[in-house]
Amino acid sequence: MPEDHNEVGSVSQQRYEQIVAELREVVGAQPLGQFVIGDRSLEIEPIRDFGGRVAGERTPLVRDSLVKLAADIGLAYGTVASARWTASRWPQEHRRPDVSFKVHRILAQIESEEERFAVIGTPPEGKPRWTPDEASRRVGRQVETPVTPEEKVSAIHALARNDEVAAVVTTELLRRPTVAAQVSAEDKVKVVEELTRDEKVAAAVTTGLLRRPTVAAQVSREDKVRAVEELTRDESVATEVTTGLLRRPDVAFKAMSDDTARHQVNHAQVERGRQAREHFERTSPVAPAVRRIERTMEFIDLVAACHSFVASAGRTVPGLRDRQLGEDERVIVHENVSRVRATLDWIETAVDTGKVDVDGELARLLSGQ
């Protein structure tokens, strides 16, 4: 049925006004009843010094008396204690029958008596009377029916004091795109850091993010290098990545410009050849025959080297007839002759004993140092 502008809910405007008048009388009677409980509680247990005892008297603790009173009149101890404290803050002459006891109790938190007694008679601007929420706003307490964004945020914080509740609320809120969009970049970073403390979660998130080209493009060169180093600690992964990278001509060229990298590649090639040779010699049935052939070839190569040296010397030395070399030239020739003698001694030792080890002095001569 369409709402009648002369009705409030299911009653007429006239009946509504009658109900309001009736309930105001009830509300007006509430402070009187609550203050009676408070006054009588004060009579039994006046407000005492710290510790709950009147100085110099041996009386029971205040709580004991109030617990007994509450039990005898059928109320909770907290109700009696609250009424007692509120009554102590509002002397008879400053109580307002048109203001609820709950409002009196909330405004009782105002420390200054002068301010407290003035406030109770001055409702908030634009309001005909004090309400519990307006009183809570006045003393800075959480309201029961939040209106402003700040009050709603405060209410949510109060409800989410429990960590489990807070986690559920946060999860639900962040699933709303319009909410997540309003979270600052700094707070989003903090949230992600907290959520990725678990290494498995962090790994999954990082993997997902780096698959997004726009994200990867914003990572600095230094961080990319560090990331690759961390990701390739596993040798099998490093091998696969390196192989793929060296297949790119520009990458291979730049990598080989590094002396250390080039040396490592050359060393790897030599080592790979050595390992392949050892594997062949261990496993191939034709390895003994090949070794015999290699020895024959080594003999031929050695004889050829000696023949070549003798032939070269035979062609070159006669050209020195009637020619005097300079001092520097003679020094160079003598150094090379020493190297040749050392090499010849080495050859003779290898042929006679089969030992091809090179001592330090011979190594120095052979290297031209």
Structure characterization notes:
The protein has 369 residues and is an all-alpha fold. Among the domains are: 142 residues, no CATH class; 34 residues, no CATH class; 44 residues. Helix content is 69%, strand content 1%. The protein has a two-stranded antiparallel sheet. Helix 4 packs parallel to helix 6. The longest helix has 32 residues.
What labels describe this entry?
19 helices
Short description:
The chain has helices at residues 13-44, 62-73, 77-89, 101-107, 113-119, 132-139, 149-159, 163-174, 177-181, 185-195, 199-210, 213-216, 221-231, 235-246, 249-255, 259-283, 287-316, 327-353, 360-366, and strands at residues 7-8, 11-12.
Give the SSE layout:
Elements: E1 7-8, E2 11-12, H1 13-44, H2 62-73, H3 77-89, H4 101-107, H5 113-119, H6 132-139, H7 149-159, H8 163-174, H9 177-181, H10 185-195, H11 199-210, H12 213-216, H13 221-231, H14 235-246, H15 249-255, H16 259-283, H17 287-316, H18 327-353, H19 360-366
Antiparallel strand pairs: 1-2
Helix pairs in contact: 1-3, 2-3, 4-6
Round the mean pLDDT to the nearest integer and report it: 78
Helix content: 55-70%
For the biggest β-sheet, the strand order reads 1-2
User: What summary fits the major beta sheet?
Assistant: 2 strands, antiparallel
The low-confidence parts are 51-58
Count of runs of 4 or more consecutive helical residues: 19
3D shape? rod-shaped
- Rg, nearest Å: 50 Å
**Approximate strand percentage:** under 5%
Structural class: mainly alpha
N-to-C CA distance? 113 Å
Instruction: List SSEs in N-to-C order.
Output: EEHHHHHHHHHHHHHHHHHHH
Number of strands: 2
